[in-house]
TrEMBL record:
Protein name (Swiss-Prot/TrEMBL): Uncharacterized protein
The species this protein was found in: Microcella frigidaquae
Bilayer-crossing regions: 828-851, 888-905, 920-941, 953-971, 977-993, 1000-1019, 1039-1061, 1073-1091, 1103-1124
Transmembrane among keywords: yes
BP-aspect Gene Ontology terms: carbohydrate metabolic process
Domain of life of the native organism: Bacteria
Ranges where the record places region Disordered: 775-811, 1131-1153
Length: 1153
């Protein structure tokens, strides 16, 4: 009976397991074993509960006494060691093989709890049962479902992408489902599930709608708590979502007031469009497309997904074409396109020989463009003939609407019309309100204008005459009225045994443009001036053959070429030897057969001869006396040009060489006149009529006096003898006298008394004015000046004296540089200037480059500081350009401010007429050497190398101007050292180092050229001035001085090979080119500017001061170099590579200042 009873027991146990399983219990089967097995655990709440109570059911093997423990882990805990006891069950061998117990988890601690059970029969704890989960969550009856964000606000939500973002709050641990339903086509899908909702109750998900996605969707959301109870519907439930397809595609064109457009919508959509006239103002509808559509979104169009639209009779203006899709009877996102219909231009035709010129105006509709926040790059006017062929085009002036173009045409009768075409119609980035598209069009054509085109009748060459001078050719040319004459000069090279070689034009007169071809102007508008050229002079020509090549343009015809040649010979050599009273033998070498002429400089004496076959010549100049200067030149004879080809009537001319340098010679007087017993008629020379000061020296002389004449010089009110001398064998008298130091200021008389041997005294009286000398620093230090006497400014950066309320009083820069005559009076000054130039090269330029290379290798220490200053400078420049709007205004403001700052180099600078004149002079000089110089350099670079440039502004350089004034006041030096940074020239394209170096040399050459030209002008003005100069003359003189001094100092400073100066570009590219350029500029700087810095024109002879300044600069520079060289910790190779990379990046705007 044992076996049947065992089977019966097991059958009962199986039945119990089944019953417990159906009631939510989990049962464990077991066989009698020696070790306790893990119990089987189930929870009374299989998913969870909205309260913290649940029950645990366990099943264990039979026949064993044991203690079963039920454990749980709190939400978020996974370590079994952190278990907490939930409840216990005692199982006996004789009792049931399982049991249940109840308990609670911590109240309010929502989340998912993990349960397991273990059994202990006294021999040890069994393994843990499989894990069970219990959700402790919120009740749907107490916590509603809430959907927030755009979807929850209600209404219809239109989206451009098929993704719905859903968020809100729901009962913690609940399950949220989001469903979407589409009516057309019928589609249903669960698009989002959040299970479980976090303990916070907040949920979100990104729900992608199923395809096809375009159209209207109904979106619903539900939340069920852990007990499957359904939460209340959220507000505004259900939700409507419209997924809009991409905006329609529009292809349109406007021609002759007619818009043709094709609108492409999304697949399956219907498309509609409406034309709104004056769409950005008070708009009116011009119709719908398709035409059967009323425009109402409630009654969508029935055509699609592509429709073709035509709107005619559109007036000139800016209109709007609106288009949209319609899906599921719902309008989706629309599109707006701005339509620009140009106004019809006016047309006037001017027939000219061989063609016609067309002119007129067209309204650019600027006001409507502004309202529409739109821009127009150009409004092109196209002229067509009767065959609808394009004759010419022109861009109208967008301010005035004026336009003009021309064309070469066949003679005869034709008719013409014009139309306007928009170019670059688009959104104005400076405004707001951009639409989806911008479509520019073409206007209606003007009424046809019939005209008769006259034939070109042929044009003769202009009438040309030449005036040949010393190494110069002057050309006068006269052409037809309304013609344009162009004269070019070419240097002809004749290699031995080879043909004539021609280079580029070295000079041009008359029409300057290059845009003229064989059949007329390339630009269409024929030049009509100048028809007379009368100021064409080519001077300073080197010896050789020169070709004059020119023609005249007459509307769309041109003449034959002027093809003339002039031989400019070498200057002959010249030796002069007195050969007797009143005559000199002049001789030398020249070209055999050429004619040599000798002339007295400043006189009429001359002689001429022909060079012998041996290459020598001589002739005798008569009618001379005393110290004279003679010079010579030669003229070629019988020159005949032999070009390989020529373009017109060939003509050859014999030109003149340059004059030789004057040769000085003293000529005995021929037949001195006998002594007359009566008074002599003689002239006392050496006094220029200006005011005298005590201590001033005068060099007096007279000529033509009888030999042995005694001459006494006196100064009278109270007579004082200044000196005496006797006329020499040439009848000349020379005497240096000094105005007495104790001579009182006022009116006096300079008296010369000439008494020939055996004759009577002859008296010359010259009224003179003596003025008090200017005060010196010692005078100012000795005590206060008298109230009645003006005190002059102390020597320094500049000096000025006199009454500053007088507009004609001198300023700090008046006559502060030497004249050309001053340098020739003391020729050894040139040697001193050359020495100072070499000192500048050795003591300034080379140490500067050494320091610059070391700075490049220490970018890790100094680079951030330099970069920060550079960025601030760039931001300041951008702000200044943006505020000033126009570059000319910006340049004027910069020049004005810089001039005011530089004015303080004068210690007496203030609110007085002299300061005003000085400021205006500085402004003129600054404008010439900055803006004008940069503009000229840019024009040459564009003409010679095709480089696009622009004049750039650097307002941050005003800070350097202040530094320049401080340096000027300390070193008594010109403040122009830093002005080259104010306005400069930028390249607008990426170029290599060779081109950048050429641009720098070009810019420097133009600046130096302007400065030297101003110096020549100052020298000439000084030489021609007589008496006391007026305010205007002093203004011109001061402006010339400012231009000279500031131009040369700016050029000198810019050539220093520092990384932030333009000279570094040339130094890196070619050191010989840099050295040659630097030496030339340095010599001019030393000769002209350094005397200014010392405050007197004789200061260049005393080189000690400037040698000391340059030695100090070199010492400081080398000390800084050594400090950086031996303490730097950066990698030189790496830093220099970075510097070079930066330089290459900046090549697109390489500075040529």
């Amino acid at each position: 009976m044992v076996a049947p009873l065992s089977r019966l027991r097991r059958a009962l146990i199986a039945t119990l397991v089944l019953v417990l399983g159906l009631s939510g219990a989990v049962v464990v089967t077991s066989t009698a074993q020696a070790a306790v097995s893990a119990p089987i655990l189930s929870l009374g709440s299989l998913i969870g509960n909205t309260t913290n109570f649940t029950t645990a059911n366990v099943f264990v093997e039979d026949g064993v006494d044991m203690e079963v423990s039920v454990w749980y882990l709190e939400p978020g805990v996974s370590d079994p060691a952190a278990r907490q006891l939930f409840c216990t069950i005692t199982v006996t061998a004789a009792g049931p093989a399982g049991g249940n117990c109840g308990g609670t988890v911590p109240s309010g601690e929502l989340g998912i709890y993990t349960f397991f059970a273990t059994a202990d029969d006294g021999t040890g704890e069994s393994p843990a049962s499989p894990l069970s989960s219990f959700r402790y969550g919120e009740s749907a009856s107490s916590v509603p479902l809430v959907v927030d964000g755009p979807l929850g606000s209600g209404g219809s939500l239109t989206l451009e992408t098929p993704t719905v973002e859903i968020s809100g709050t729901a009962p913690a641990m609940s399950r949220v489902e989001v469903r979407a339903t589409s009516v057309d086509p019928l589609t249903f899908a669960i698009i989002c599930v959040v299970d479980p909702v976090p303990v916070s109750g907040e949920f979100s998900c990104s729900a992608a709608l199923p395809l096809p996605t375009y159209g209207q969707w109904t979106v619903t959301a539900t939340a069920r708590d852990v007990n499957f109870a359904l939460a209340a519907d959220p507000p505004n439930y259900p939700y409507t979502v419209v997924i809009a397809p991409p905006e329609p595609l529009v292809a349109a064109a406007v021609t002759a007031e007619t818009l043709t457009a094709t609108v492409d919508g999304a697949p399956g959509s219907n498309v509609g469009a409406e034309m709104l006239l004056n769409g950005f103002g008070t708009s009116t509808s011009a119709g719908f497309c398709p035409a059967t559509w009323t425009g109402s979104p409630l009654t969508p169009p029935t055509d699609g997904p592509t429709v073709a639209c035509t709107f005619t009779g559109l007036p000139a203006g800016v209109h709007i074409l609106e288009s949209a899709h319609f899906l599921n009877a719902t309008a989706t996102l629309g599109r707006e396109d701005a339509i620009y219909v140009p106004a019809t231009p006016t047309l006037a035709v001017e027939p000219v020989p061989g063609g016609a010129i067309f002119r007129g105006t067209v309204d650019p509709l600027s006001d409507q463009l502004t309202i529409a926040s739109a821009r127009l790059d150009a409004l092109e006017v196209v002229v067509r003939d009767a065959a609808d062929q394009v004759v010419c085009t022109a861009d109208a002036d967008l301010s005035t609407g004026a336009w003009e173009c021309g064309a070469e045409l066949e003679s005869g009768t034709d008719s013409f019309s014009a139309e306007a075409r928009a170019v670059g119609f688009g959104f104005n980035p400076d405004a707001f309100g951009e639409v989806d598209g911008y479509i520019g069009g073409t206007s209606s054509a003007t009424p046809s204008v019939a005209t008769s085109i006259p034939a070109a009748t042929g044009v003769a060459t202009p009438e040309v005459t030449y005036e040949l001078g010393a190494a110069s050719i002057s050309v006068d040319a006269v052409g037809l009225p309304n013609s344009a004459i162009q004269i070019d000069l070419y240097r002809v090279e004749v290699p031995p045994g080879d043909e004539y070689q021609y280079g580029a034009s070295v000079g041009r007169c008359g029409l300057q443009t290059e845009d003229v071809g064989e059949g007329g102007p390339i630009g269409g508008i024929p030049p009509t001036s100048p028809s007379v050229v009368d100021d064409c002079a080519f001077t300073g020509l080197e010896p050789g053959i020169w070709n004059i090549y020119g023609l005249q343009y007459y509307y769309y015809d041109s003449s034959g070429y002027i093809d003339h040649y002039v031989m400019i010979p070498e200057a002959p050599s010249l030796t002069v030897i007195p050969s007797g009273p009143g005559q000199v033998v002049a001789s030398g070498t020249g070209d055999p057969g050429y004619r040599v002429q000798v002339r007295q400089l400043g006189g009429a004496a001359a002689c001429a001869t022909t060079v012998t076959t041996g290459g020598t010549w001589s002739c005798t100049v008569t009618g001379l006396a005393g110290d004279v200067l003679l010079r010579a030149q030669q003229q070629s004879q019988g020159f005949v040009a032999d070009p390989p080809t020529f373009f017109g009537a060939l003509a050859s001319y014999d030109g003149f060489s340059a004059w030789t340098a004057p040769r000085a010679v003293t000529v005995p007087v021929a037949g001195l006149p006998a002594v007359d017993s009566g008074p002599l008629v003689w002239i006392l020379e050496g006094y220029d009529g200006g005011d005298l000061t005590p201590g001033q020296q005068l060099s007096l002389r007279a000529r033509g006096l009888p030999v042995g004449t005694d001459v006494v010089i006196e100064i009278r009110s109270t007579p004082q003898v200044l000196g005496s001398a006797v006329a020499d064998a040439l009848g000349e008298f020379a005497l240096d006298v000094t105005v007495p130091e104790d001579l009182a200021p006022g009116e006096h008389t300079l008296v010369g008394i000439a008494t020939p041997p055996g004759g009577v005294a002859s008296v010359i009286e010259i009224p003179v004015t003596v003025v008090a000398p200017a005060s010196t620093d010692d005078d100012l230090g000795s005590g206060a000046p008298d109230d009645d006497e003006p005190v002059a400014a102390p020597d320094g950066a500049g000096t000025s004296a006199g009454d500053r309320s007088d507009p004609a009083a001198p300023s700090a820069i008046t006559s502060s540089i030497p004249t050309l005559q001053r340098l020739f009076d003391d020729p050894w000054v040139f040697a001193a200037g050359g020495g100072l130039a070499l000192a500048l090269l050795l003591l300034v330029a080379f140490p500067a480059e050494l320091l610059n290379s070391t700075l490049s290798s220490n970018t890790g220490r100094l680079g951030r500081w330099f970069v920060a200053i550079e960025r601030r400078a760039e931001r300041a420049t951008e702000w200044f350009t943006r505020v000033s709007r126009t570059r000319a205004l910006a340049a004027a403001v910069l020049v004005g401010l810089t001039s005011l700052i530089f004015g303080f180099v004068d210690p007496e600078y203030g609110f007085d007429p002299v300061s005003v004149r000085m400021t205006v002079s500085l402004a003129i000089g600054l404008f010439l050497i900055t803006y004008v110089s940069a503009w000229i350099s840019g024009a040459i670079a564009r003409r010679a190398w095709g480089l696009e440039t622009q004049v750039t502004l650097q307002p941050v350089a005003l800070l350097f101007a202040v530094v320049g004034v401080v340096v000027a006041r300390i070193l008594e030096f010109s403040p122009g050292f830093l002005i080259g940074l104010v306005i400069g020239l930028d390249l607008l394209s990426r170029v290599d180092a060779a081109v950048r170096a050429r641009v720098v040399v070009l810019s420097t050459s133009v600046t130096v050229g302007i400065a030297v030209a101003a110096w020549f002008g100052f020298s000439a003005l000084t030489a021609l001035s007589s008496g006391t100069p007026g305010w205007v003359e002093l203004l011109i003189s001061d402006a010339l001085v400012a231009t000279t001094a500031e131009g040369l100092t700016a050029a000198m400073a810019s050539l220093l090979p520092l990384g932030f100066l333009a000279g570094h570009e040339v130094f890196r590219h070619s050191k010989p080119l840099w050295a040659g350029t630097f030496i030339v500029v340095a010599i001019l700087f030393a000769l002209i500017v350094l005397p200014t810095a010392a405050g007197e024109t004789a200061a260049v002879e005393d080189m000690a001061f400037w040698m000391l300044v340059m030695a100090i600069f070199a010492a400081v520079t080398l000390t800084l170099w050594a400090l950086l060289q031996f303490t730097g910790n950066g990698s030189r190779d790496g830093d220099e590579e970075g510097v070079e990379d930066g330089a290459e990046e900046e090549a697109a705007t390489a500075s040529a200042r």
